[in-house]
């Protein structure tokens, strides 16, 4: 049996990815703070299961507890596990000198520490139990260029890219066959984009540019982007370990 874990599953890209995985008859375990409506019915229609776990990814102890609960739920006949670290926060959007320490700490926990912890734990589980593991973490073009007002977001996404490349080297050295990659989805029509557009010019100097993306209908649909991610994820033989994939190369 194949299982997938998807964070941020209740909306946006996470919801789209979970839906598409269920349609491929893969059991899905979703992590989010709010309910993902409709996925249980879709799972039933495809003769698989969907289980949801409420978790605040900003709390590392809660993340570890949730991972333990998940490991106790899947079948002993598991043959492959896909992990999609999708959940992320954009706040704080502001000049670095105005950022509150507590907001910065939460941001780093959600965007960097949580996906690293989950990848580490499930890689170890795969190695000890003998099933294959494919891990994907959603990154951003902001990882590769500085953007005024996004010091936290640029930094955490850049750290995810380096983490991905490093873990890939480790797995290749050990010859495990496990793979990890990062996926840059471009600009999508999501709640995160709404938050970005709500920023003031003093906080985020590029806010008008992001408003124009919405006005010009330049934001991609999450189902379309999710389809690209799922195609990469489930075509294990062709995944380049450690690669930073970009949706623009596929659409």
From TrEMBL:
It holds the Pfam family adh_short. One of its GO terms (molecular function) is sepiapterin reductase (NADP+) activity. GO terms for cellular component: cytoplasm. The keyword Transcription regulation does not apply. Its EC number is 1.1.1.320. It is found in: Cytoplasm. It is an enzyme of class 1 (oxidoreductase). It comes from the Bacteria. GO terms for biological process: tetrahydrobiopterin biosynthetic process. InterPro entries: Biopterin_syn/organic_redct, NAD(P)-bd_dom_sf, Sc_DH/Rdtase_CS, SDR_fam. The keyword Cytoplasm applies. Keywords: Cytoplasm, NADP, Oxidoreductase. Belongs to the short-chain dehydrogenases/reductases (SDR) family. This is (S)-benzoin forming benzil reductase. It comes from Oceanobacillus jordanicus.
């Amino acid at each position: 049996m194949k299982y997938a874990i998807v964070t941020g599953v209740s909306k946006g890209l996470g919801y789209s990815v979970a839906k598409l995985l269920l349609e491929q008859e893969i059991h899905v375990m979703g992590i989010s703070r709010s309910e993902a409506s409709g996925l249980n019915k879709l799972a039933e229609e495809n003769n698989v299961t969907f289980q949801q776990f409420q978790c605040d990814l900003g709390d590392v102890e809660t993340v570890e507890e949730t991972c333990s609960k998940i490991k106790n739920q899947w079948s002993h006949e598991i043959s492959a596990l896909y992990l999609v670290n999708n959940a992320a926060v954009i706040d704080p959007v502001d000049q670095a000198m105005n950022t509150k320490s507590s907001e910065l700490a939460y941001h780093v926990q959600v965007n960097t520490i949580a996906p690293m912890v989950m990848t580490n734990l499930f890689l170890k589980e795969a190695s000890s139990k003998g099933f294959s593991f494919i891990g994907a973490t959603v990154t951003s073009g902001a990882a590769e260029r500085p953007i005024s007002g996004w010091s936290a977001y640029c930094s955490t996404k850049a750290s995810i890219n380096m983490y991905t490349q490093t873990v890939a080297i480790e797995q290749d050295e050990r010859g495990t066959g496990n793979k990890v990659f990062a996926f840059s989805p471009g600009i999508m029509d999501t709640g995160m984009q709404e938050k970005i557009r709500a920023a003031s010019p003093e906080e985020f100097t590029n806010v008008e540019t992001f408003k124009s993306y919405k006005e010009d209908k330049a934001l991609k649909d999450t189902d379309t982007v999710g389809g690209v991610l799922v195609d990469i994820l489930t075509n294990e033989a062709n995944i380049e370990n450690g690669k930073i994939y970009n949706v623009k190369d596929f659409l």
